[in-house]
Amino acid sequence: MPGTLYVVATPIGNLEDITLRAARVLGEVSLIAAEDTRQTRKLLTHLGLHTRMLSYNEHNAAQRTPRILRAVLKDDVALVSDAGVPIVSDPGAGLVRAAAEQGTVVLPIPGPSAVTAALAAAGMPADAFHFLGFPPRARGARTALITHYEHAPETLILFEAPHRLRATLEDLRVVLGDRPIAVCRELTKLHEELFYGTPSEALDHFDAPRGEIVIVVAGAEAGRGREADATAAGEAIARLKAAGATRRDTTEQVVDAYGISRRDAYRVWLQT
Questions:
Q1: Which phi and psi (to 5°) does residue 6 adopt?
Q2: In sequence order, what are the residues at sequence separation of 6 or more whose Cβ sits closer than 8 angstroms to the Cβ of residue 23?
Q3: Where are the domains of the chain?
Q4: What angle do CA 51, 23, 132 make, to 5 degrees?
Q5: What is the pLDDT of residue 241?
Q6: pLDDT over 90 for what percent of the chain?
Q7: 3-class SS string, 163-232
Q8: E strand map for the chain
Q9: Which position among 25, 59, 76, 226 has the lowest Cβ density within 10 Å, counted as fewest Cβ atoms?
Q10: How many CB atoms are closer than 10 A to CB 129?
Q11: Higher-scoring residue by pLDDT: 181, 223
């Protein structure tokens, strides 16, 4: 009888956050496809489970996907990431899509999520938000991404590595100004820290941070909207150009964010 592919959320830090259903499923499936078997082994040991595992990550996904698809044709399989909900800034989307295409039943097992945990603690509107994942490492591309959402009224959520936190905070300050943010570090872990303030204040606070980080940024003030604003568009073009963005990328970002024409954006680029 064909099995089911369970997409199982696991704790982002505190192992007590595992749900009863997730623990049961991890004990009942015949195979767990784990992003890092060493990390998942800690969870299984905590639960007293000895389920067989197979590593499945961005480096071996192409080779392992067929094997997992064959396995789920015979019995139940669980997909887990290092922490949180699989596929959210983690590998697995290709496997889920392929499983669905071959007719396998795919069921999510909800649970801990760094995105919703940070959003719940940030004290900002949560009825609508943009999850940006990990921003690009290159400054020009990162600045372009932030500029794209400069006038969005919805809350923004980003993941960031500790060694790039200060660079991203600086870009947020330059592009968005000192609007409210919450920096959530090591959520649910021993050294958990939630910082509330502005990008400038966060730069003063975080010197050499460690651990996993989620940044929650307040949306643009009501009334700013996306109306054509030649002055603001010109400033954005100058920032992007200075950061090394190409003319084409800059034009795309500014046209979308400020509503000016491509011709005007190109003209300002030449004059900047």
A1: -95, 125
A2: 47, 49
A3: 4-112, 115-217, 230-271
A4: 105
A5: 83
A6: 76
A7: HHHHHHHHHHHHHHCCCCEEEEECCCCCCCEEEEECHHHHHHHCCCCCCCEEEEECCCCCCCCCCCCHHH
A8: 4-8, 31-34, 53-55, 77-80, 105-109, 129-131, 155-160, 181-185, 193-197, 213-217
A9: 59
A10: 20
A11: 181
Q: Mean pLDDT throughout 22-39?
A: 97
Identity (one letter) of the amino acid at 79? L
Predicted confidence (pLDDT) per residue in 161-183, tens digit: 999 999 999 999 989 989 999 99
Whether the predicted pLDDT of 50 surpasses 70: yes
Q: Would you state the pLDDT for residue 222?
A: 59
Domain 4-112, what fold? Cobalt-precorrin-4 Transmethylase; domain 1 (3.40.1010)
Structure tokens of 40? 């998942």
Positive or negative torsion for Cα 210, 211, 212, 213 = negative
Token output for 199 = 């990008």
Smallest CA-to-CA distance from 98 within 71, 136, 129, 133 is with 71
Under a CB-based contact definition with an 8 Å cutoff, are residues 72 and 5 in contact?
A: yes
Question: Which residues in 219-236 are b (16+ Cβ under 10 Å) and which e?
Answer: bbeeeeeeeebeebbbbb
Name the token pair of 201.
């204040």
* Superfamily in which the 115-217 domain is placed by CATH: Tetrapyrrole methylase, C-terminal domain (3.30.950.10)
